[in-house]
Design goal:
about 250 residues, alpha/beta, Methane Monooxygenase Hydroxylase, Chain G, domain 1, 2 domains, 6 helices, elongated, phosphatidylinositol binding, MIT_dom_sf, membrane, identical protein binding, MITD1_C_sf
Length: about 250
């Protein structure tokens, strides 16, 4: 029996599965996720096309690829317009004990050479591990292609015995950043509650738990102690928006 345009070989089956998911996401108006699936499915179909000799099947595949490419392009244009209008919204749900959500993995899509200024609002940059989280976030900003010159941090002041440690830790981070040509401005607020990160290229990221969404490692010599992509996470939600302008703290 002749095979259909998408046959039963592994690549065809994978393409059909991914594109079926793309159509489902599309119908649910989950356009960012649908676009990713469309692009992945199209790539798989192109690989199938390369290995197909039958002219009729090649013609059918080209028609399918063209149809999915047109839809993907329309979604891409729609999302770009949403960004321009300040309406873009993407949500990522991090499940309990999930891995693969280091700061680099989460933020790399939104960092480029146009980023020169960053605002962080997080009431819990107090304890030692939270200071290390903030330091790791700053290291990411230095390593990425962005050219950050100023980082603004709004946090709450520890009222307990760790206040001296908090102030000293942030001062050391400030001095270290200065040696890399980056200014860190720290302000304290007793009423801050929301957690928010903004880049001056218009991206705004709200994480339910702020930067402190990683679980404590099992030991100093367990996987995930150094590489945060391997560190299990607490359950939280990440909401990503795009605004034309960001406000100063």
């Amino acid at each position: 029996m002749a095979k259909s345009g998408l046959g039963q070989d592994p690549q065809s089956t994978a393409a059909a599965t991914v594109l079926k998911r793309a159509v489902e996401l599309d119908s649910e108006s989950r356009y960012p996720q649908a676009l990713v699936c469309y692009q992945e499915g199209i790539d798989l179909l192109l690989q199938v096309l390369k290995g197909t000799k039958d002219n009729t099947k090649r013609c059918n595949l080209r028609e399918k690829i063209s149809k999915y490419m047109d839809r993907a392009e329309n979604i891409k244009k729609y999302l770009e317009q949403e960004k321009e209008d300040g309406k873009y919204h993407k949500q990522i749900k991090i499940e309990e004990n999930a891995t693969g959500f280091s700061y680099e993995s989460l933020f790399r899509e939104y960092l480029n050479e146009t980023v020169t200024e960053v605002w962080i609002e997080d009431p819990y940059i107090r304890h030692t591990h939270q200071l290390y989280n903030f330091l790791r976030f700053c290291e990411m900003l230095i390593k990425r292609p962005c050219k950050v010159k100023t980082i603004h941090l709004l946090t709450s002041l520890d009222e307990g015995t760790e206040q001296v440690q908090q102030s000293r830790g942030l001062q050391e981070i400030e001095e270290s950043l200065r040696s890399h040509g980056v200014l860190l401005e720290v302000q304290y607020s007793s009423s801050i509650h929301d957690r928010e990160i903004r880049f001056n290229n218009g991206w705004m990221i709200k994480i339910g738990r702020g930067l402190d969404y990683f679980k404590k490692p099992q030991s100093r010599f367990s996987l995930g102690y150094c590489d945060f992509d391997l560190r299990p996470c607490h359950e939280t939600t990440v909401d990503i928006f795009h605004k034309k302008h960001t406000k100063n703290i």
